[in-house]
Structures are given as structure tokens and as C-alpha cells.
Amino acid sequence: MHNSSLDLEQYILNHIDNEDPILSQLDRDTHANVLYSRMCSGHLQGSILTFLSKLVSPQNILELGTFTGYSAISLAKGLKEGGKLHTVEINDELEEFAFSYFEKAGLSETIIQHIGNAEEIVPALDETFDLVFMDADKRRYVEHYEMVIDKVSQGGVILADNTLWDGKVVEPIANNDLQTKGILAFNDHVKNDPRVETTILPLRDGITMLRKR
């Protein structure tokens, strides 16, 4: 499709709300200083996360995979007054980076950081979540989904990132490609789970959207 997809994305960016200056700075800082910077949500995905969060109007949000904090800040914009966002990141080297931007965004009291393995941290959280954003280890997506589903309120929403995985979900899979296998297993699992309604938004690497019945 030559450059049509890039042109179309730029057209979209030109016709949505302007990027929050703090998020713009965060994105630049991430790309300048952090490995795997393409994992940063960026303006287009961030705007959709904010929009969806405002539609849900959650009291509590859970995020699996903080990275540098772009998605957490985007999601937190939709919280009800007094609401909290719990975000879990296994890489402790990113903790201070993300927290510095939570402070700049005025969200250091709203966003609660947890550093460590989500499968140890999340079961200990005594909360019900209206919105969950899954963006951690793709190999463990099914396990993470089962870990959070009972903590989601009725009518609550789960968003799972990267579920089209750069198109690899429709290509032959190498035996050692555990991340693609994990995503395929997750997509099949939720498609057949009667507890949720399921659709996929073909944005960037794909976002699976689930609503708890």
C-alpha cells in the first residue's frame, strides 16, 4: 500500500485533539533515552485510551505493564474524582522515569506504582476494577486474563494491547515464537469465553476490547 498507511495515520493525528504537552515530552524523552522505545503508546493510541477511559468513567483502573507511563497517564484522565490507577511494571529501572512524569502530570497521588511480577502483586490487591489495560508479557496473556477477570466489575472493560502482533497472528509461526503463540492462545481463549463480549480494534498492533457481561 506504498505510504498510504503512514499518510492515513498522519491524517488522523492532524484531526484529533492535540497531544498533551507532558505526554509529548514523555514520548520524546522515552525515544531519546529508553530501550525498546516503540513500546511507548504514543499520541494516537493514548488518545483512544483516554477516550475509552472517559466512556467507562472508572473508579479504579488496573494496568499491567507501565513502561514509561504514557498509557497510565492517558488512562488516568478518565478516572472519576478520587479514583485510583494501579500500574504494575516488572522492570525496576523504569520506576523513577515513570514517576517523574506522573508528578509532572499532577498524578503522583492518583497513580499507584507496583514494581515486580504481576502474578504475585495483582492477587494481593483488594480492589475491584472497572477498567483493565493488559500490556505486559504476551506469553502470559491467558494467565493474566484469568488473574484479573474476577476482579473486574460487571460491565467493566478489559483492553489487551498488541493482539494482532504486527500481523504475525496470520503468518506461519516459528516453534520458538512464544509471544505470538501466547497472543494466539489469548485471542482464542477470550473469543470462546461466555463471561465477556469481545471485539478487536485494528489500531497499531491491535487492541482487543472485552466487556464483562
TrEMBL record:
Protein name: O-methyltransferase
Species name: Halosquirtibacter laminarini
